C-alpha cells in the first residue's frame, strides 16, 4: 500500500476510534480579527481555516472564541478553552503543544524602484521607517535599539497607513507582517498607484506558530489532521486562497 494512502487510512481509523469522546465542538481561542489570519468574527481566515480543516480531517469540529491576546491566554489557563491558537512554547504552562501549523514573518518592504540595499536590521537606520504599533517591543533587541535611536521612525495603529505612506513616497520603508501588508494593498488609497512593484527584505526570522491544547489526545488528533491536509493538497489550497484575497 502506498505510504500516503496507508497514513490516511491509519488517521481515519484513529479519528473513528477517538471521535465519540469529542462529539461536542472544541472551544478554540484565537485573537481578534487580523486579516488575512483571522476574519469575519473567527469564521474565516488563513489560520482559522487551517485549524478547522485539520480538525475536520479527523472528525472533530471547532467553535471559535475571540479575545485580545493577553485575555486569550488567561482564559485558556483558567481551563475555559480546549485549544488556543497562535502561540509558541515560550508561553510556558502545562499545556500540550501541536506541531507548527503556520509560520509568519515580519519583513521590511520598499518600492522596488528605490533599490535600497537593506540586508539587515541595522540598515534601517539610514531610512525613514513606518512600523506597526509596538513593533519596537515585539521585534527583538536589535530592532529595539535601531528604533530607539532613530529620528525618522514612527509606529502606526492602523497598518493600512503604512502602505499609504509607502506608495505616496512619504516613507522609505514599512515594517510588518508580510501577509498582512500584502492583504491590505486592496484597501490602498484609490488615488495611489498600487501597481508599483515592491521589494521584500526578509531581515527578520520566520515566526513558527503552534496551538496549545488542554488534552494531549486532542493535540495528537490535530497533528494527525494537519498531516492529512498537508498530504492531500488542502493545506496548500488554503495558503493560495488567502495569498490572492
Quick description:
This is Transporter substrate-binding domain-containing protein. This protein has 245 residues and is an alpha/beta fold.
Topology:
Elements: H1 3-18, E1 26-30, H2 46-57, E2 62-66, H3 69-77, E3 83-87, E4 96-97, E5 102-104, E6 106-111, E7 129-132, H4 135-138, H5 141-148, E8 153-156, H6 159-167, E9 173-177, H7 178-183, E10 198-201, E11 207-213, H8 216-231, H9 234-243
Parallel strand pairs: 1-2, 1-3, 7-8, 7-9
Antiparallel strand pairs: 3-11, 4-11, 5-11, 6-9, 6-10
Protein name: Transporter substrate-binding domain-containing protein
Signal peptide: 1-23
Keywords: Signal
User: Which fold name fills CATH's third level, the topology of the largest domain?
Assistant: D-Maltodextrin-Binding Protein, domain 2
Structural class assignment: alpha/beta
Reading off the top of the CATH hierarchy, the class of the largest domain is best stated as: Alpha Beta
Order of helices and strands: HEHEHEEEEEHHEHEHEEHH
Average per-residue pLDDT, rounded, comes to 91
Verbal overview:
It comes from Rhodoferax potami. This is Transporter substrate-binding domain-containing protein. Residues 25-245 form the Solute-binding protein family 3/N-terminal domain. It holds the Pfam family SBP_bac_3. Keywords: Signal. The chain has 245 residues and is α/β, with parallel strands linked by helices. The chain folds into two domains: 3-102 and 209-243, D-Maltodextrin-Binding Protein, domain 2, CATH 3.40.190.10; 106-201, Periplasmic binding protein-like II (D-Maltodextrin-Binding Protein, domain 2), CATH 3.40.190. The chain has nine helices and eleven strands. The chain has helices at 3-18, 46-57, 69-77, 135-138, 141-148, 159-167, 178-183, 216-231, 234-243; strands spanning 26-30, 62-66, 83-87, 96-97, 102-104, 106-111, 129-132, 153-156, 173-177, 198-201, 207-213. The strands form two sheets. Strands 1, 2, 3, 4, 5 and 11 form a six-stranded mixed sheet that branches. Strands 8-7-9-6-10 form a five-stranded mixed sheet. It is globular, with a radius of gyration of 20 Å. The chain starts with a helix and ends with a helix. The model is unreliable at 4-8 and 13-20 (pLDDT under 50).
Amino acid at each position: 500500500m502506498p505510504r500516503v494512502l496507508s497514513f490516511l487510512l491509519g488517521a481515519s481509523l484513529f479519528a473513528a476510534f477517538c471521535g465519540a469522546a469529542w462529539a461536542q465542538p472544541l472551544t478554540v481561542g484565537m485573537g481578534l480579527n487580523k486579516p488575512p489570519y483571522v476574519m469575519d468574527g473567527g469564521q474565516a481566515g488563513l489560520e482559522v481555516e487551517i485549524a478547522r480543516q485539520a480538525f475536520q480531517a479527523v472528525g472533530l469540529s471547532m467553535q471559535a472564541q475571540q479575545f485580545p491576546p493577553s485575555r486569550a491566554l488567561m482564559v485558556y489557563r483558567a481551563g475555559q478553552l480546549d485549544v488556543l491558537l497562535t502561540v509558541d512554547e515560550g508561553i510556558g504552562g502545562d499545556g500540550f503543544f501541536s506541531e507548527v501549523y503556520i509560520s509568519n514573518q515580519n519583513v521590511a518592504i520598499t518600492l522596488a524602484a528605490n533599490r535600497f540595499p537593506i540586508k539587515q536590521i541595522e540598515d534601517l537606520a539610514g531610512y525613514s521607517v513606518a512600523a506597526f504599533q509596538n513593533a519596537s517591543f515585539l521585534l527583538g533587541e536589535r530592532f529595539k535599539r535601531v528604533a530607539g535611536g532613530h529620528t525618522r521612525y514612527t509606529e502606526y495603529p492602523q497598518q493600512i497607513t503604512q502602505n499609504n505612506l509607502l506608495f505616496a513616497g512619504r516613507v522609505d520603508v514599512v515594517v510588518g507582517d508580510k501577509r498582512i501588508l500584502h492583504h491590505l494593498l486592496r484597501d490602498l488609497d484609490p488615488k495611489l498607484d498600487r501597481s508599483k512593484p515592491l521589494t521584500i527584505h526578509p531581515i527578520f526570522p520566520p515566526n513558527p506558530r503552534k496551538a496549545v491544547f488542554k488534552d494531549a489526545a486532542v493535540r495528537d488528533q490535530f497533528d494527525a489532521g494537519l498531516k492529512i491536509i498537508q498530504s492531500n493538497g488542502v493545506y496548500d489550497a488554503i495558503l493560495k486562497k488567502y495569498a490572492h484575497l
